[in-house]
């Protein structure tokens, strides 16, 4: 009898955890760029077919990147300036950046940066969106 109650309690707990995981926000990769070792700017084209997003973030792999500025261009012509001004180390990411307004269809994201060190590994920057 006691083992049945414990089993039932564990089952309810597992179902609750699975339901919470299913409702957790899912970030979708919108684009990726390999960055060079000198100060530069890059563009990640997104497009209206990706849909509407509430938030974006950048992740960095292989080598750190010193972000200096970022502009998000929307399909309706609006542009917002997002000041990152931060070194994101390899394996790190920016904060989740809220996108203002109702029409948040991203056309492209332009970012300015400098790699943190010139080594054999070029940094990979990925753009993610959250609906």
Write up this protein.
The chain is an alpha+beta fold and 131 residues long. It has a single domain, classed as Sandwich (Jelly Rolls), CATH 2.60.120. It has one helix at residues 2-23, and strands at 28-34, 40-45, 55-61, 65-74, 79-82, 86-88, 97-98, 106-115, 124-130. The strands form 2 sheets. Strands 2, 4, 5, 6 and 8 form a 5-stranded antiparallel beta sheet that branches. A 4-stranded antiparallel beta sheet has the order 1-9-3-7, with no helix packed on it. Strand 4 and strand 5 form a beta hairpin. It is flat. Residues 18-22 have low confidence and may be disordered.
Examine the coordinates and then state which fold CATH places here, giving the name of the CATH topology: Jelly Rolls
Assign the structural class, choosing from mainly alpha, mainly beta, alpha/beta, alpha+beta, or little secondary structure: alpha+beta
CATH class: Mainly Beta
Report strand %: 35-45%
Oligomeric state, counting identical vs distinct chains: single chain
Superfamily (CATH H level) name: C-terminal carbohydrate-binding module
Query: Residue-averaged pLDDT, rounded?
Result: 83
State the end-to-end distance.
Answer: 46 Å
Can you tell me the overall shape? Answer: flat
Total helices: the number is 1
- Report the order of strands and helices: HEEEEEEEEE
Rg over C-alpha atoms, rounded to the nearest angstrom: 20 Å
């Amino acid at each position: 009898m006691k083992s049945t109650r414990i089993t039932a309690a564990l089952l309810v707990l597992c179902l609750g955890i699975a339901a919470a995981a299913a409702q957790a926000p899912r970030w979708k990769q919108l684009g990726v760029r390999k960055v060079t070792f000198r100060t530069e700017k890059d563009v990640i084209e997104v497009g209206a077919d990706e849909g509407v997003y509430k938030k974006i973030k950048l992740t960095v792999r292989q080598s750190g990147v010193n972000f200096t500025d970022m502009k998000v261009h929307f399909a309706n012509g609006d542009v917002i300036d997002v000041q990152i001004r931060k070194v994101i180390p390899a394996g790190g990411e920016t904060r989740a950046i809220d996108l203002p307004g109702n029409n948040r269809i991203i056309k492209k994201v332009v970012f300015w940066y400098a790699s943190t060190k010139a080594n054999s590994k070029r940094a990979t920057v990925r753009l993610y969106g959250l609906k």
